[in-house]
Design a protein that fits this description.
This protein has one domain: Rossmann fold (3-Layer(aba) Sandwich). Helices cover about 35% and strands about 25% of the residues. The protein contains seven helices and seven strands, in the order ααβαβαββαβααββ. The protein has helices at about 1-15, 25-35, 50-60, 70-85, 120-125, 140-145, 155-160; strands spanning about 40-45, 65-70, 90, 105-110, 125-135, 165-175, 180-189. The protein has a seven-stranded mixed sheet with strand order 3-2-1-4-5-7-6, sandwiched between helices. Strand 4, helix 5 (about 120-125) and strand 5 (about 125-135) form a beta-alpha-beta unit. The chain is globular. About 35% of the residues are buried. The structure holds S-adenosylmethionine (SAM).
Length: about 190
């Protein structure tokens, strides 16, 4: 949606690095297992923002496509890839209107929730492909400031991925702190 592009462009303009310079801790913790288990090196970073995770994956040998609606976020991502000595295929798309056509060995979905996209993400995985999901959980303190449509419910991630053919290799919900989160690593059968 155009309003998402405008909202995220403003956020990315207002800070040097909206979600920090470092890749996700979950991704860093899992990278060795990911490299061991992924059937190949073709990766997709859903709603990649300023590219911190796309660049990290590229530096770890993946051929990465990063998708996002924010042109400001993506231009920062391109600069980050250049500075990091890697090439990433960043594309501006509205994921609400987007169909994932290609097949991937690895898909990241971090800090973004579009429930209707999840079945297509699983479909887009090659057999044995990995999907890492990590985003915000609903909690009383967040419900006042966040749109509830973009917050995961308790147990939702496990329940969702438990219904697909494959294995949940890791799953965790952290309810403490001011930003509760759920994360999961799924491997398609
Ligand atoms: C919290 S940021 C997460 C960025 C990145 N995944 C990370 O963890 O660093 C959410 C991202 O979703 C993107 N986004 C929001 N709505 C979108 C849409 N409809 N299509 C594509 N990207 C969208 C925003 O531009 C923003 O970069």
């Amino acid at each position: 949606m155009e309003s998402d592009r405008i909202k995220w462009n403003k956020r990315y303009e207002s800070e040097d690095s909206y979600l920090g310079e470092r890749p996700s801790l979950f991704l860093m913790n899992e990278i060795e297992r990911i490299k061991r288990l992924a059937p190949g090196n073709k990766a997709l970073d859903i709603a990649c923002g300023e590219g911190r995770n796309s660049v990290f994956l590229a530096q770890n040998g993946f051929n990465v496509t990063g998708l996002d609606i924010s042109d400001i976020g993506l231009s920062k991502a391109v600069a980050r890839a250049e500075a990091g000595g890697v090439v990433v295929n960043f594309r501006r798309v509205d994921l609400e209107q987007f169909e994932i056509i290609e097949r991937y060995d690895l898909i990241l979905n971090f800090n973004f929730l579009l429930r209707d996209l999840i079945p297509s993400e699983v479909r887009a995985l090659k057999p044995g492909g990995l999907l890492l999901f990590d985003t915000i959980l609903e909690s009383p303190q967040l419900l006042s400031s966040h749109n509830p449509a973009y917050l995961l419910r308790k147990g939702e991630l496990e329940q969702l991925f438990g219904s697909y053919a494959g294995k949940i290799l890791f799953s965790e919900e952290n309810h403490s702190g001011d930003m509760p989160t759920a994360r999961l690593l799924f491997q398609k059968a």
